[in-house]
Amino acid sequence: MMTHRLLPALLVASVALGAPCIACAAETVTCPALFPLQTLQFGDAQGGWKAQPGERAPRLIGFGLYSGPPAQLAQLQETTVGKGQSIWKLAPPYEQGLWVQCVYADGALTLTRQLSVTSGVCSAPARLPRQGQPQPISIVCK
Questions:
Q1: CB count, 10 Å around CB of 63?
Q2: Which of 26, 31, 76, 129 could be cross-linked to 142 through a Cys-Cys bond (beta carbons 3.0 to 4.6 Å apart)?
Q3: In this structure, are residues 51 and 42 in contact, taking their beta carbons and an 8 Å threshold?
Q4: What pLDDT sits at residue 77?
Q5: Whole-angstrom Cα distance, residue 23 to residue 75?
Q6: By the 8 A CB rule, do 98 and 72 touch?
Q7: pTM of the predicted model, to two decimals?
Q8: Is 99 left (phi over 0), alpha (psi -120 to 50) or beta?
Q9: Residue 13 to residues 4, 18, 19, 21, 52: CA-CA distances in angstroms?
Q10: What pLDDT score was predicted for residue 56?
Q11: Measured between alpha carbons, how far is residue 74 from residues 67, 100, 123, 131 in Å?
């Protein structure tokens, strides 16, 4: 009984003292609302054609959480979806880590990023906004 009360007290004390707290680690990754066109590099195309980005950046159309690099197609399914939120209860081990993929231009462009967290719970909006100005989407893992 005493050890059950001691652990929360130690966690609070470590946070108060500024000590690193593994159990308190959290990470937020945000998919930009528009694909950053400055990241694209174009070379000369065949037949004298020149390639260049358009005037408007492609908007965010989707995102996903993956076990390993997204190219391996190991997308994690949400544990629950409700109240406008998708929730993933992480079940390690993830040998190649957890990754986020942001999808643009009907899948023609993607951004991928490895997360530092490998356990806990991640949440994100269940749906992308469909009307109005493009908006970023944040995935929060605790």
A1: 22
A2: 26
A3: yes
A4: 94
A5: 25
A6: no
A7: 0.74
A8: beta
A9: 15, 9, 9, 10, 55
A10: 83
A11: 5, 11, 18, 30
28 token code pair: 């937020």
In whole angstroms, give the CA distance from residue 133 to residue 129: 9
Q: What is the pLDDT along the chain (142 residues), one digit of tens a residue?
A: 444 433 333 333 333 333 344 445 789 999 999 999 888 888 888 888 888 878 788 999 999 999 999 999 999 999 988 888 999 999 889 999 999 999 999 889 999 999 999 899 999 998 887 777 889 999 999 9
Other beta carbons within 10 Å of 38: 8
Residues 16 and 137: their CA atoms lie apart, in Å, by 31
> How many C-beta atoms surround the C-beta of residue 29 within 10 A?
23
CA atoms within 13 A on the CB side of 106: 0
CB of 67 within 8 A of CB of 93?
Answer: no
Distance CA 140, CA 66 (A): 14
Question: For residue 59, what are the CA distances in angstroms to 34, 37, 99, 133?
Answer: 4, 11, 20, 9
Number of C-beta neighbours around residue 69 at 10 A: 14
